[in-house]
Amino acid sequence: MNSSDRRIAVLGAGYMGSAITFPITDNNIEVNLWGTWLDDEIIYLCKNNKPHPKLDRHLNPQVKLFYSDDLDNALKNIDAIIIAVSSEGFTSVYDILLDKMDVEKPIIAVTKGFVEKDDTVYRISEYADLMYKKRFGENIKWASIGGPVKAVELSRRVPTATIIGTASKIIRRLFNIFSTKYYRISFTDDIIGLELSSALKNVYAIAMGICDGYYSNREDDLYHNFKSLIFMESIEEMAFLSKYFGALKSTPYGLAGTGDLYVTASSGRNSLYGKRIGMGQRADTAYEDMLKGDKLVEGYNTLRLGFKYIESRGVDVEKDLPLYDILYKIIFEDGRYNGQLDELPERIKIS
Amino acid sequence: MNSSDRRIAVLGAGYMGSAITFPITDNNIEVNLWGTWLDDEIIYLCKNNKPHPKLDRHLNPQVKLFYSDDLDNALKNIDAIIIAVSSEGFTSVYDILLDKMDVEKPIIAVTKGFVEKDDTVYRISEYADLMYKKRFGENIKWASIGGPVKAVELSRRVPTATIIGTASKIIRRLFNIFSTKYYRISFTDDIIGLELSSALKNVYAIAMGICDGYYSNREDDLYHNFKSLIFMESIEEMAFLSKYFGALKSTPYGLAGTGDLYVTASSGRNSLYGKRIGMGQRADTAYEDMLKGDKLVEGYNTLRLGFKYIESRGVDVEKDLPLYDILYKIIFEDGRYNGQLDELPERIKIS
Q1: I need a surface site. Which of A340, B164, B183, B229 has the fewest CB within 10 A?
Q2: Of A253, A346, A351, the CB nearest to B187
Q3: Which of A55, A61, A174 is nearest to A108 (CA)?
Q4: For B105, how many CA atoms within 13 A lie in the half-sphere containing its CB?
Q5: How would you write the pLDDT of chain B (351 residues) with one tens digit per residue?
Q6: What's the confidence (pLDDT) of residue B1?
Q7: Which residues of chain B neighbour A267 with C-beta distances below 8 Å?
Q8: Which of residues 207-226 of B touch A (CB under 8 A)?
Q9: Would an 8 Å CB–CB cutoff place B201 in contact with chain A?
């Protein structure tokens, strides 16, 4: 089959949903880009030949645009669906999607994090599979996308490495077609490890932001050793969790964990949020302030839901995840930073 | 044995040799700090109660100071020797040391990199063991120190994680005594993996510096994806080499590789050197300039010797280490940066 016969639906016209249309359409594959009810203005602007307002760039002509009330048409004649909404919007979009789908299609998620339904927290792929089985009586053909991919840079065709977690050969073949000179794709079977890393790197980037905000204000920039200690502890805790949940311990050491944390800690809203806290702002105020500026801090919600997910499945957070524990207490108990990270070096496990 | 009965000789009174005296003497262990012929002025100043000129800090009173012509006395009544000279000075100091040693002692090296003797390149521990066997007919009791440790920060007691590669129980016990609230020590048996990581992270930090220097001058700071791709490729190449040389593939993913590269790429002379090249300076001129400013770029020599070491042992650098290959060509063939890193994304191995 020629790549030009393919068509992909992308749900969510925010940063990542729109950015991922670039490598796909650069391969001459058509994209139906559907905007959620929050994206109607974006769709309107793009339909009127304006640049995408978040990416500040015109989308490729192979991208067909669909308003939120036109999901049925967006799903017509497609080979696969990429979901690229925020983790907070995932369940509602996904539930509608399953309702509208008449035949089975591979589903690929850029969305990272945890979702909560009826007081239970799930990994996104876990929730997706559960609902899919209810609807179709079959296992889902699923992929999670991970790795260090900032959307604006992808839309500029900055060389980017990504990793796809999937057990589906169909999806692998599809992504092999998506690959371009600037969009380098690798694969793993370890969906759970990739998903945990992708979600939790947003949490740990907050800790690194706190370190930046607090220490870069003091003395002569002398906190690199400590920052690296925090970076490595973040990865070790992701590796612990990956193993704990039956996934590969090695996944967080690769693109999905280390690679993505590297990017996320050096730029982006999660580390910026941490920086504000490190500089003295209250954790809740900082969150609200950024939300008002249209900057949803995903790591904030992932920290809370992740805690519930991890604890409810028997992990001793205080003992096994000291950095996670300290961060949770800063943000949801103490409410501000008073040097709590100072206790980390004595609490990390050393071998 | 009480810690106060212990005494450690540290050879080399530059940054790291002097910095490591802090956690040791904070544990009430005496240190004999011996300066090489390049360090006599440092020793003079410290003996006269001035701050250490590189660390800009007074050493602890438990540090006894020895001029370069007084090595015999520096080696009296000691439990172990820490070598902290530059890789260029290693063989000459080590050869003298073996000459002076009358009984066997554990030897610990902060020195990272490769050494060359009679046109053969060795890892430092390899050379050390070879010479030790000649001298004593026994295997050396050896440790290599790795991990993200900037000397100035260690001397400020900034929380620091380090990793010690050793097969010696005696050395493990010793380091357990060196540990402090701020100096967190972990261990590995994998000396080779640690040594390769510690040496090569200086090389790869140059590549990251080039990326910084080149791209941070252009467009709106949009090169995080690419920088992370380079970061991860650095670690993957270290992992490839670690495995190739019979060591653990996992070692570079930990403190010795990822952790140390994280620090080295964000500050320090190797990344600074790369930055100059990325900004357009010739590779040799940049090296000479920095040397004049008393800033020896260790990664420059490690790149050259490492290449010889790796090639002479059968690695296909062009195929298996594309980033190393590109960097080597930039610095020792083309002599300047003309965007050669752009070919990396297509050359990396993807799985």
Answers
A1: A340
A2: A351
A3: A174
A4: 24
A5: 455 589 999 999 999 999 999 999 999 999 999 999 999 999 999 999 999 999 999 999 999 999 999 999 999 999 999 999 999 999 999 999 999 998 999 999 999 999 999 999 999 999 999 999 999 999 999 999 999 999 999 999 999 999 999 999 999 999 999 999 999 999 999 999 999 999 999 999 999 999 999 988 666 788 999 999 999 999 999 999 999 999 999 999 999 999 999 999 998 999 999 999 999 999 999 999 999 998 999 999 999 999 999 999 999 999 999 999 999 999 999 999 999 999 999 999 877
A6: 47
A7: 221, 224
A8: 219, 221-226
A9: no
Residue B104 to residue B213: CA distance in whole angstroms? 48
| The token pair that represents B330 in the structure block | 């930039």
Helix (H) or strand (E) holding B267: none
Q: Are B8 and B31 in contact (CB under 8 A)?
A: yes
Distance CA A165, CA B203 (A): 31
pTM score = 0.97
Of A142-146, A265-269, B283-287, minimum mean pLDDT range: A265-269
Q: How far is A347 from chain B (nearest CA, A)?
A: 10
Burial of A97 (0-12, 13-18, 19+ CB in 10 A): buried
By CB neighbour count within 10 A (0-12 exposed, 13-18 middle, 19+ buried), where does A234 fall?
A: buried
Cβ neighbours of B186 in A, within 8 Å? 350-351
Written as one string, the DSSP assignment of A46-114 is HHTTPPBTTTTBPPPTTEEEE-GGGHHHHTTT-SEEEE-S-GGGHHHHHHHHHHH--S---EEE---SE
ipTM of the complex: 0.96
Q: Does A165 touch chain B (CB under 8 A)?
A: no
Do residue B222 and residue A185 have CB atoms under 8 angstroms apart?
no
One-letter identity of residue B61: P
Residues 6+ apart with CB under 8 A from B9: B31, B32, B34, B74, B75, B78, B80, B81, B82
Longest dimension (CA), chain B: 62
CB contact under 8 A, A226 and B153: yes
Of the candidates A153, A222, A227, the beta carbon closest to that of B222 is on: A153
- Cα of first residue to Cα of last residue in chain A, in angstroms, is 53
SS (H, E, C) B322-340: HHHHHHHHHHHHHCCCCCH
Closest CA to B7 of B54, B73, B90: B73
Q: Do B229 and A185 touch (CB under 8 A)?
A: no
The mean pLDDT value for A329-340 works out to 98
Name the amino acid, one letter, at B28.
Answer: N
- Comparing CB atoms, the residue among A159, A161, A229 nearest residue B160 is A229
Mutate to test the interface with A, among B201, B211, B228 (most CBs of A within 10 A): B228
* B179 CB-near residues (< 8 Å, 6+ apart): B23, B27, B185
